[in-house]
C-alpha cells in the first residue's frame, strides 16, 4: 500500500476553513490551516480526488524539499540538489512559478529564473541537452514559495488553476472567479435544500456552482486536464476509479435554480455555459430586470449574487443599491439574500440591516459578502410567533 505524503492546497483569503472541511470530508489526514492554504496528507489517489472534488482549492501542491535560503546562490544549489530526472525527461517542457514574501527576495521572476537555470544546468551537465520552458502548457509545473528565509519547492499537481473548471467558454465583462463563487455559496450555507435565485447572473457562474453543490457533482469534472496527467507515475486507471466513486455520490435535487439578467447577451452566454456544464435540466435563465421582478413561489428562497461594483461596469451606485434593498423588502419575503461587493460605501444605501458580513477579496479588491434576512411577515411578528 502506498504511503501517504504531505500536500498543500492553495485557496483564496477567507476560504481556509471551508477548504479544510472539504478535505476532511474527502478523507484527508493531518489537516492544518495556513494563510490562503491548508496542508494535509494523503496518497496519490487522494491527490487525484482533491483536484477533482475540492470546490475552494486553486492548486494542490506536492512539496519535494523544505530548506532555509540565505541568497540566490543557496536557492540555486537547493533546486539543483533535487534529482529532476525522477520527475521529467530532457525532452519534456517545464515552468516555474514563484511566490515570495519578506525582505530576503523581492522579485518573484528573478527567483523563478534562478530555479529554472538550476534545472536546466542539471540536465545539461548530465545529458548534454536541456529541457525547454513552456509557460502555457508545461509537462511539469514547479512551484517555489519563499516566506522570509524559508523556501518550499513543490510539484504543482493541478496545472492550470482549479478555478478554470472547463465549463465557462463565454464570459461577460466582469465574470466572478469560479472558486470565489463556490466559496460564497458555501459561506452562505447553500446545500440545495430550497429554491435558489441569482438575480444578476451574468455568465451564469454562480448558478452552475450552485447546481453542482446541490447535486454534489465534482466541480472539476469538465476540466480537460490536470497537471499530474503529465507526470511519470500518472495512473489513469486509478484516476478512473476515483472519478467513478465521486460520480456515485451525485444526489437528486428537488427544487429550482433560476437566474435573471437584463442583458440579452448575458442570458445567451449564461445558457451556453450551463449547457457546457450539462446542467440545463437544473437551471432556468431568463431576461429580466431584477428590480421589476417578484418572488415566484411562496416557499423559502435562497439568493446569492454578484452585483456590479462600479469597477468595470458603470452604474449609478446610490440608487442602484437602494433598489436592491427596496426590491428585496417589497417583493421577496421569506428570502435569505446574500451578495458580494467591493464597493463598501454602497452598502449604506441598501437600507436593510445586515445579519452577516464576511471579509473576502475579489481579485485584489477587498470585498464583503453580506447577508440580509427578509422575513415572511414583519420581523416583530415572526419573533412573537416563535415565542
Automatic annotation (TrEMBL):
<dbReference type="InterPro" id="IPR004114">
    <property type="entry name" value="THUMP_dom"/>
</dbReference>
<dbReference type="InterPro" id="IPR053943">
    <property type="entry name" value="RlmKL-like_Mtase_CS"/>
</dbReference>
<keyword id="KW-0489">Methyltransferase</keyword>
<dbReference type="GO" id="GO:0008990">
    <property type="term" value="F:rRNA (guanine-N2-)-methyltransferase activity"/>
</dbReference>
<dbReference type="InterPro" id="IPR029063">
    <property type="entry name" value="SAM-dependent_MTases_sf"/>
</dbReference>
<dbReference type="Pfam" id="PF02926">
    <property type="entry name" value="THUMP"/>
</dbReference>
<keyword id="KW-0694">RNA-binding</keyword>
<dbReference type="GO" id="GO:0070043">
    <property type="term" value="F:rRNA (guanine-N7-)-methyltransferase activity"/>
</dbReference>
<dbReference type="GO" id="GO:0003723">
    <property type="term" value="F:RNA binding"/>
</dbReference>
<dbReference type="Pfam" id="PF01170">
    <property type="entry name" value="UPF0020"/>
</dbReference>
<dbReference type="Pfam" id="PF22020">
    <property type="entry name" value="RlmL_1st"/>
</dbReference>
<keyword id="KW-0808">Transferase</keyword>
<dbReference type="InterPro" id="IPR000241">
    <property type="entry name" value="RlmKL-like_Mtase"/>
</dbReference>
<dbReference type="InterPro" id="IPR002052">
    <property type="entry name" value="DNA_methylase_N6_adenine_CS"/>
</dbReference>
<protein>
    <submittedName>
        <fullName>Putative N6-adenine-specific DNA methylase</fullName>
    </submittedName>
</protein>
<feature type="domain" description="THUMP">
    <location>
        <begin position="46"/>
        <end position="157"/>
    </location>
</feature>
<dbReference type="InterPro" id="IPR054170">
    <property type="entry name" value="RlmL_1st"/>
</dbReference>
